[in-house]
């Protein structure tokens, strides 16, 4: 039996013994005696009686054990034309003083703090300061509009909002403070305080009741770490669901810390003192786990990059960063490499850099499409590892695991389930699918440590979204299959969530915004294939009878609405007016069928369809605009 299989089997047959052993990777104040327990709803809870503090484990512990002068962060910002190295000791001190500042603003254990910041070290400082106090942070990605920020403030009810004065995107300076003001205005919950970190590129006007970060920290005491239980919440991270309301995914502290520490060794093969670089954003789960927490828990150095893969200044940025910081493992989304490939198809810029420090390349956020896999595989001498995960799981569900055993990769596969994740594929009858048979990908309970523990303030949604479909299993929302050798292939979402440039977006939410326009009778938003971003949303719209305006103007209005409500990150730039949309006899729009048309695939007309001519109508409209290309990845029908 292979080493991987042996370890995987141990984790499934004896989860308590397995995770009790992994828990030793973390410096607990009180080591847990209860490893696995279940709440009233029979959801797994890990390390419930252990006591720890994640900030202590990631910072103070290393300072106390000889890593004080080692770099914790290499911050590199072509956007701000600045670089900074911050040692573990410096970072610990910054965090402790900002935690002191938060304490003076009344933040205590269990309070929520919303953080709206770009990729600057202060974003990490704010997150760790919350962890230090046992407060719960909720980071909101900067590409979301005020309306989205407001929805999160409304739901999380933060005591304090922490923001930066601006973000910087490909030469554009984006003032954040007006967006924060608008969001607080829109929300019925009003935070007690707002703290702003002033950046040189744009200083925000502050009201007298608002706080300047530097001024606040200058007179703040050094706060000590507050011990928390393993099951106490560390953060809420909102993610797109099938409805307009984002889901507040909740993460515990102890289980998350243990899972991340385990992953740094088993999946990323990292040793203390080595350099880890994840090119993502602190606003996404990838950023939370592998920019902020995991590298420092493991005693590594994390590269924090404020820039794009291309045009900052060119498509060689990643290679430059790998050389400059001697990066051992690098992680980003496939779309970033598609952007690089488009600009520099023969990777000529790579010749300018020595990337010999690189030992593994990881991608996630969307499926690594075979052409991009082959491009990377031919280019680099290191394993190219696609691995699959979600905001909900917090760490990878399936991967190649060089820290245990590197197995040959297969293009298009996320390889094998990670120890702890009992992944199964269920077919339409709810039975285990045979090899090569596509179905719904689920995880048999108990989920391993690190996975979501609930949806903030919404136990019913937690159950209905994830647990109700197949009792005893967690529903991932992804479709896929195992091949004969047990390789897992994740082929796409089975719900109305789409993936645009590695970002997860809800088409339902876009439909709510488009459908609210007075001229729109009905609409459907679907994802269509895009060579660079994987998918792009397109709105199919039926106008109300008697509409007399100009269609092009209306389309522009709808596009502006989505940008204003959800944000530029929605990439909603295409609207198509159609006469009819295909529906079932019960009146539901057939979105999966629409996706098939958009992808340019052959389709048969299902017997349940109400009006077959509506299909031809949409098809013709799509053809006319030449949208939709044949997708290489076959979504489930
Ligand atoms: N703050 C404000 N606006 C932001 C933003 C932020 N943090 N991030 C993106 N935006 C804006 C962009 O400026 C763009 O606006 P525009 O419509 O005015 O041009 C819009 O949101 C769409 O952004 P994006 O989809 O990222 O497109 P892009 O063309 O700027 O970049 C890629 C495309 C592929 C280079 C980029 O998405 C990328 O590097 N992705 C891979 C890494 C990643 O983010 N992974 C996430 C999970 S691992
Ligand atoms: P997010 O929660 O934003 O990280 O998005 C999670 C979703 O992205 C998953 O449910 C998948 O649909 C998709 N995804 C992430 N990584 C992969 C991968 N390696 N292969 C296929 N799909 C992926």
Structural write-up:
This protein is 31% helix and 24% strand. The protein is an alpha/beta fold and 637 residues long. It folds into three domains: 2-307 and 387-481, ANL, N-terminal domain (Rossmann fold), CATH 3.40.50; 317-329 and 341-386, no CATH class; 501-632, GMP Synthetase, Chain A, domain 3, CATH 3.30.300. It has a seven-stranded mixed sheet with strand order 5-4-17-16-18-19-20, sandwiched between helices. It has a five-stranded parallel sheet with strand order 7-6-8-11-12, sandwiched between helices. Strand 26 and strand 27 (488-493) form a beta hairpin. Helix 3 packs antiparallel against helix 4. The chain is globular and about 70 Å long. Adenosine monophosphate is lined by residues 239, 285, 364-367, 386-391, 414, 476-478, 490, 493, 499, 504. This is Propionyl-CoA synthetase. Residues 509-588 form the AMP-binding enzyme C-terminal domain. Residues 70-446 form the AMP-dependent synthetase/ligase domain.
